[in-house]
TrEMBL record:
Name of this chain's protein: Aminoglycoside phosphotransferase (APT) family kinase protein
Record domain DUF6285: where: 378-459
InterPro entries with a match to the protein in the record: ACAD10_11_N, AGP_Transferase, Aminoglycoside_PTrfase, DUF6285, Kinase-like_dom_sf
CDD domains in the record: ACAD10_11_N-like
Length: 464
């Protein structure tokens, strides 16, 4: 596949340059669960070489309108003074490089949030980055809507309802959030170009600060405060305590925004969007998993992302003030106990099958992935091996803890008068049970805590 793609890229870039161009060093990057990202070098006939990046839809899952909109957004952002990778070429004809695509210049810097938040060399950049990101968002929101024709818009709460109904897997936590969002809608403001995925991971940063804004795949028209809220949700802080991407305070972000926009967004409206986008991310994780479950895009990464719904449920409860009641020290101890219980579940679980048990096999495969595949040298294979190993760790915890958790779950539902959590979610939707009923909230908190103990017990110990 790599050789064929390199040949296609060479033909296309030669046509764009009206001169021969060779493609060297093509490799797929780990970034992007929904679109492929490739890096390569374009070698021109005059001896010049240029590092470039290809983004394309997964072949067979073409979204030509979306790719065209992304390319138009990058061009409009560039014209508005937003730092973006220079656009080299784009197209929606799948025969060109196998799928709709865009090619940009490579921009030096780091995108990985944990590195940006923890490595000493980015200390100077971190010091002023929250305000800088506020200024950048103000410039994005100042892009004239007519410069990016075709931007979609939707009612934010109805969009979430439509999404959860389409998934066919109702969640009580999401229904509680939807009720809160409906009751606390912020004052309407004029629509703007909304990036839609402005966060660490989609920003290139070097030692001096922001270098480029990436991934305009979710661009749309709507409330500009959505981008501010998304940048501030807990999952994109990567364990750091500061509320804006782990980098700074909300005041720093909003003050930076006001420097360019001339007015300061309402902090309570930004909080509303934090709740909204946490809900959206919970549903989007499940949507991405559905692409794997349906067979449309088989992927261990997409399958693993589906289990992250529990993390967003946990964050939703915290954001709504109905989160876990236990202090962090207790949560940390329980998370450790859950992990140890899973690792110790190596006794035979079946008189028929004996040893190795299912838990034995899970641990053996997880160790192989961690110790052999991760160190094999291929960057993307190593990344997916880590994803798979983490997923198997969760399977091990489920084997050890799941039966007892399931029993408690059924007892909690029965005490409320419901057969399953889908029935409970529907009752919340139609108002048959109050979304702030203490017994309901206690049951939902317990269910989310159990799910998180299987999926990612460390997550409960991160700063809230």
């Amino acid at each position: 596949m790599t050789d064929d793609l390199a040949a296609r890229l060479a033909r296309r870039l030669s046509a764009v340059a009206d001169a021969p161009v060779a493609v060297d060093g093509l490799r797929r990057l780990t970034a992007g669960a929904s679109r492929e990202t490739w890096s390569f070098t374009a070698a021109h006939a005059d001896g010049t070489r240029r590092d470039l990046v290809l983004r394309r839809d997964p072949p067979g899952a073409d979204r030509p309108d979306g790719m065209a909109l992304e390319a138009a957004s990058i061009a409009a952002a560039d014209a508005a003074g937003v730092p973006v990778p220079p656009l080299v070429d784009s197209g929606t004809d799948a025969t060109t490089v196998g799928a709709p695509y865009l090619v940009t210049a490579h921009v030096e810097g780091e995108t990985l949030g944990p590195r940006l938040l923890r490595e000493d060399r980015y200390a100077q950049a971190r010091a002023g980055l929250a305000a800088e990101l506020g200024r950048t968002l103000a410039r994005i929101h100042a892009i004239p809507l007519d410069d990016v024709p075709g931007l979609a818009a939707a009612d934010p709460v109805e969009h979430l309802r439509t999404t959860v109904d389409g998934l066919g897997e109702p969640l009580p936590t999401v229904e509680i959030a939807l009720r809160w969002l409906e009751r606390h809608r912020p004052e309407v403001v004029p629509e703007a170009v909304v990036h839609g995925d402005f966060r660490l991971g989609n920003l290139i940063v070097d030692e001096t600060g922001l270098r480029a804004v990436l991934d305009w795949e979710l661009v749309h028209r709507g409330d500009p405060r959505e981008d501010l809220g998304w940048l501030s949700v807990k999952c994109w802080r990567f364990g750091a305590p500061l509320p804006v991407a782990g980098l700074g305070t909300l005041d720093e972000l909003l003050d930076g925004y006001a420097e360019v926009a001339g007015e300061r967004p309402d902090a309570e409206a930004v909080r509303w969007w934090q709740v909204h986008r946490t809900t959206w991310w919970a549903l989007h994780c499940r949507e991405m998993a559905e692409r794997h479950l349906s067979g449309a895009t088989p992927s261990v990464e997409l399958a693993a992302i589906g289990r992250r719904v529990a993390e967003q449920e946990h964050d939703l409860l915290l954001a709504l003030g109905i989160g876990v009641d236990e202090p962090p020290a207790v949560a940390a101890r329980d998370a450790s106990a859950a992990s140890h219980a899973a690792r110790d579940a190596l006794a035979p679980t079946s008189d028929l099958l004996g040893r190795p048990s299912a838990a034995d096999l899970v641990e053996a495969v997880r160790t192989y992935l961690r110790e052999d595949v991760v160190t094999a040298g291929d960057e993307r294979v190593a990344y997916l091996a880590r994803v798979a190993a983490n997923a198997l760790a969760g399977v091990g915890r489920e084997l050890a803890l799941g039966p007892e958790m399931e029993r408690r779950h059924r007892e909690r539902l029965a005490a409320l008068g419901y057969r399953d959590q889908a029935e409970l979610a529907r009752a919340i939707r139609r108002g048959a049970v109050a979304a702030d009923d203490p017994a309901l909230l206690a049951a939902v908190r317990a269910a989310v805590s159990d799910r998180l103990a299987v999926v990612n017990p460390r997550y409960a110990t991160l700063p809230s």
